[in-house]
Each structure stands twice: as structure tokens, then as C-alpha cells.
Request: fold
Amino acid sequence: MSLLEINGLRLAMRSFDGETEVLNGVDLAVGENAIAGVVGETGSGKSLTGLSISRLVPTPPGRYLGGTIRFDGQDLMTASEEEMRRLRGRQIGMIFQDPTTNLNPAFRISTQMVDIALNVAKSDPELIGIQARSSRRARRVAARQRCVDLLGQVGISDPDTRIDAYPHTFSGGMRQRVLIAMALIGQPRLLIADEPTTALDVSVQAQVLELMSSFVRERDLTMIFITHNIGVVAQLCTDVSVMNAGRVVESGDVRKVLKNPEDSYTKELLSAVMTRDTPRPARNRAAAGAVA
Amino acid sequence: MTILQVENLTKHYVTSGGYFDGRGETIVALDDVSFDVRRGESIGIVGESGSGKSTLSRIILGLERPDSGRIVFDGTDLSTLSKRELRAICARIQVVFQDPYASLNPRMSVRDLIAEPMEIHRDILGMSNAQITDRVAELLTLVRMEEDHMHRYPHEFSGGQRQRIGIARALACKPQLIVLDEPTSALDVSVQAQVLSLLIGLQDELNLTYLFISHDLAVVRYLCQSAILIRKGKLVENAPIESLFDAPESDYGRMLIGAMPDIDPDRSPFRLKSEA
Reply:
């Protein structure tokens, strides 16, 4: 049984030149405990697919023309805003690309995290280990403790004091870890990560990927990993869907798709990726003698 | 033949300090960096954020002065030059920036954008407006765009086309050395391949020397004959590209090569762990 199933999702965006269909029939199924990669180039609709799952595409200018998104059997396209708000953060967590713009520079990490934890605790107090009728003070203490624990788990040393720092004192990789910790506060079942490592250095990227893969392994978590980096998909994901022009052109097991692609677009995309094995171009130049 | 010599380059920055104590901290951006670049070659400068690779390129471009050390370009020590002489030499060292969306003024037409460096260096080049327009047309053809694109504005072009405009702009004054500051990192892989092959074609045709700044080792390997690795302002490795990949000498080189995401799912360290 798939945890998430998208069928024939169509989305149009209004612009000055009239309406453009940006998603024209996206089909995507994500099984429980999978790490589903969604790859595609700029404008292929991969981010809008991710945003549609948590219904974060503003309408207007967006307009859904059809299709269904079923999460754990529930149709998200017909869910009310109230129901969606309960799902976001609790059942469906999100991590975005740029850790700098997604943390408020004016507030301490603790303020921003505890806020989420308290909000989560409203519907599910056990998550932070308290009872529904605990005092406000007890709730706060428990929420903070939960956040400190999570920061420790994502590999931030000395989380007890670091939590009171401001975002600018953290490096890019550290900020991304904070965002991952934030997304995990509500113990979501589905985590949508939209280019979470694109802004990071390769060495830091490797650490963050390691962290994310260990979380999926150790917790009951399913992840949708949106990226344009095929190398990252190959390393991390169990399944992959290749998107082009608002449509999934090929999907399946990561080994099958990346090693024996069937679709012509997938083949082209894969052949454009530079790796350490890409043959270097033959150079013909006048001053060839100078190149030794 | 050596076109650029970088000798014992050192640069410190002093931070403005804390809000109250006013004492600044000294940050070592470059620490005794030396290397040579041969004419017609491409050298990759690889390092992570904060390693000092941008400071290095800014000093070579003459945008910053080093604290000590010197840059010798084509036999001339840049630090001994007057402002006017430096400006003249700057026409021969050009730059292509990382983000083609941020580096082109949206209110200038493509003709004006590409003509701008020629107007700045008009005293050296001595070109009339008509000659400049002709040269713009020539440059657009050189970067495989259409001549009548010169009447359009940047927003009408895709990322790859904008980067071509950036390249045409860099080529305008017939430079010998071009600093390429992550010219493809903002582009999709398919477009990246096109821009790289354009750069390679131009290099062969015009005998250009490239200083290619990047953190993407796969691209550096594709384009460059040698690479230097910089970490925390220090040069940790300077090697021909094959030996860097086959047998990196520094731990940093080994780590960077090891962290390159491989597109073969069977070579993933995480996957092996999760399937074990």
C-alpha cells in the first residue's frame, strides 16, 4: 500500500500571458518507508508537486484542473484548510532548500523550535511527553527538552546552550540540521525535502545525506527528496521519478531507472551529468605543444 | 609558457568586532598561496565556502590588494603599476560570474551589456560606436547566439543564454586570462554541458587561459588540466588533474573526491549501510 498516491495531478498558473499548465498529469506513488527521489530540471514541476502535497501552492494564481492526491487514504485535494493545517508539521513535514531564508534571523533557535513543539503538543501532548492538562510552564519546559534532544540527534554539539543562539551564528550545514530537527518535531510520517543540500558544500552535503538516511532507517519515516542532482538521488533514494515539462516521464526502482533508463529524456539527462568517469573532451588547439 | 604567477599571496581581513567591545578578529583569507598558470591552460581552483577562493580571484582581478605577495601577469608585477596602468591590464583579465540572473543589469539591452567593457576601455581600444556594435554582433555569433539578439533585454533569455551573454561580455576586450567564477553552478545539467563545450571551443579558438573556480570536482576534471585545492586560505594541493584523481596527496583531496556524489546507485555508502 502506498502512503502517498498522486494521480493525474494538473495545475495551471495564471500569468500576464494567460494561464499556463505547469503540471499536466503527474502520477506518483510513494510506498511506506521509501526514499522517493524526484529529479528534473528547472521548471519541470518538481517543486510544485512537492508543494501541492502539503497544499502550499497559493490559489490564485494557481488553479488545480484535476487529479487526486491521497495521503494514507485521505484525499488532500478536497481536505479543508483546517484539516490541512493539522496534517502539516504533524503528518507531513517539509524541509526547504535555503536554510538561511527559512529561519527567522530575529529570533533565537529556541524560540522558533519551541513554538513548533508547543503547537504540535496542542493536538498531541504525548509527543513532548506531557499530559493534556499540564501547566503552561511544564509544557514549555517539556517542549524545550524535546527540541534540545532533537538538536542533539541531528548532530549539534552542546545543544543545551546552542539552542539559545541566533541563526546567524550557525554555519549553513548546521542551519540545515536545525531545519531537519524542526521538521522532525511533530514526528511526521512523510517528510518532503525540497533541494535540502543544494546550498551546501559537498563534504557537508555528504554529512546531511548520511543524517537523513539514518533517520529514515531508524524511524518510521517516508521521504520525498526533490533535487536536480542525480548523484544525490543515486546515493540516497530507493525509488526515483524523473520529471520533465510537468509530467513524470519515468519512475521506478533507483537502480533500474539510473542503470537501464527506458525513456529518452531520462537517457539524455543521465548522459549530461558530469562524473569522475566522464571522458574528457579531445582538445585541438594551435598551442597544443604548451599542454603537456 | 607562464602567463600568471601568484607568489606568496597573503590577505587578512579584520572583522568589525563585537557590538560592544569593538575589538575585531583577524580572519586569514589567504595564507602564503603560490602557483603558476601556463598560457592556454585551464586551472581549477577548488575549495569549499569560506576557503578563500573568491578572495584569490578578487585579488587577481585587481579588485582587492593583497597584504603581501605579488601577482605577475605576463611578466608584469601588478603591485608596481599605477592605477592607470592597472586599468589597462585589467582589459586583458576578464571575469564571468556565477549567477547569470544577478550579474546582468535588467535595464540594459544586450548590445549595451556587451559593449560596456569596450566603452570602459575605450581609451585603449579606441573603437567608435559603430565598431563597437559590429564587435557585439561578432561576439554574439562567437557564443552561438543570433546577431539580432542584441536589441533584446536579459529577461527574454534563459539561464544558459544569459551565461553566454556573460561570456560574450568577458570576451569583448580580447582578454588573455578569464576568471570563471562557478559559471555553471546555477545551470541545469543539460545547459551546463552546453556552456562547458562552448568554453572549451572558445579556449581552443582564441588560445585563452582559464582560471576556473568551482566546488564541483567533476566539472573541474572535465575542463581543466590541473587544479589547486584551497582550504582555510592555505593551498593544500597543486597537481595535474589525472594525478589528483588517481592518487590525491592530501587528506583534503581524498575527502573531496570521496564526497563527490556518484551516479551509480551501487557505489553509495548510505545505501550499503541501509541494505546491510
